[in-house]
Every structure is written in C-alpha cells, then in structure tokens.
Specification:
The chain is of the alpha+beta class. Helix content is about 15%, strand content about 30%. The strands form 2 sheets. The chain has an 8-stranded mixed barrel with strand order 3-4-5-11-9-8-6-12.
C-alpha cells in the first residue's frame, strides 16, 4: 500500500472533464431507478487494507473501487480506469459532490477530439459524467457515472474513474466530503480473510 500514499502526480495527462453543477432534472428519480436496475450488485469482499470504514480505495490492477466497510472488508464495484498515458496514483480527498453534472471537455480532450461539443448538459443521454460526480482534491479528476456502461472494466478514461450510474449514485449517497480516496496500482482483493480483518 505504500505506493498509494505518495502525492498525486499530474504528469500522466489530463482528466476526464471539468464539470459544473446542474439541478436535478425532471425525471431524475425515474432515471436513478432505471440505472439501479441495470447495474450488477456490488460484492462484499476481503481486501488487503487496514483502511478505516468509509475510506475508498481504487485498485487500477483489480479494476475495482473498494468502499471499505471495516478493516479488511469492502464493497467492490467494477470500474473503468484511465488509459496507460493518463494513469496516476495517490491519495486525494473528496472536495465536492454533484448530481447531474454538466460536462465540459478539457483542452487536451478537445485537442484529441476537436469535434466534441464544448458543453453537455447534466442529465443528457450523451453526458460522459453520468448521474453523479465526486470531485477529487483541486484536480480535474472525478469518480463519476457514464453514458457508456459497456466500457466498465476497461482502461479507457482520460484520468477519471468511471462507474455504472447506479453504483456512483450509491457512492454519492454514502460518501462524505473529506473522504480520502486512494488510487493505487496494487492489487487489493484478497482470496481469503486476512488474519487481522474484522
């Protein structure tokens, strides 16, 4: 776990996008429930971490986000991780949370995909941030939903962590501002219960 404790490196590249807030949209409750029904249930697993309950660990190798429920225990959510050229690791706090965030592509994303719209409204079917976004530190990195659920499990993002919309809604509801998010290349999943696990 030591490698996950270093200061976050921004050298790997840009982030997924700079989002602005958006009010809840008409039909949001229906969309929330619809997305909940489409996503697989998170799994309760053993993990090689003594992090406190409520902490979040993102394992780039496992391609899972772990919400710690007790030392050695976690709920595991499948995620999409950054592409090799935008990988990063470190520990950052959740500094903001938004429902139906507006998406504005970063300059580096526009350089790669110049035909993208400069802004996509929150709640739009083609908004890459999906239903919710958790903002990490003062960076442009986010944990967010997606308009492309088939990419979950792949290395495709520009630095952000993508989740099924149902999962990011659940994470949004259960995560407090200030929660530490550790992003690590290490494998965290344990096939058996650690001796010290609760």
């Amino acid at each position: 776990m030591a490698s996950a404790q270093v200061a976050v490196s921004m050298e790997a590249g840009s982030a997924e996008g700079i989002a602005g807030g958006a009010p809840a949209l008409p039909g949001s409750a229906w969309q929330d429930q619809n997305w909940r029904e489409q996503a697989p249930l998170p799994m309760l697993v053993w993990v090689r971490s003594k992090a406190e309950a409520g902490s979040i660990i993102v394992s780039l190798s496992d391609r899972r986000l772990y919400k710690i429920t007790a030392p050695g225990n976690a709920l595991a959510y499948p995620i999409a991780v950054p592409r090799p050229d935008t990988l990063w690791q470190g520990s950052l706090p959740v500094t903001d949370k938004r429902e139906w965030p507006v998406w504005r592509p970063t300059a580096s994303i526009l350089a790669e995909l110049p035909d993208l719209p400069r802004e996509v409204p929150g709640g739009a079917p083609d908004n890459p941030l999906g239903a919710r976004a958790l903002y990490l530190g003062n960076t442009t990195y986010r944990i967010h939903g997606t308009d492309a659920p088939w990419t979950i499990g792949e290395a495709v993002s520009h630095g952000c962590i993508r989740m099924f919309n149902a999962h990011v809604i659940e994470l949004y509801e259960t995560t407090r501002l200030g929660t530490q998010v550790i992003v690590t290349p290490d494998r965290i999943l344990s096939e058996s219960k650690p001796d010290w696990a609760q």
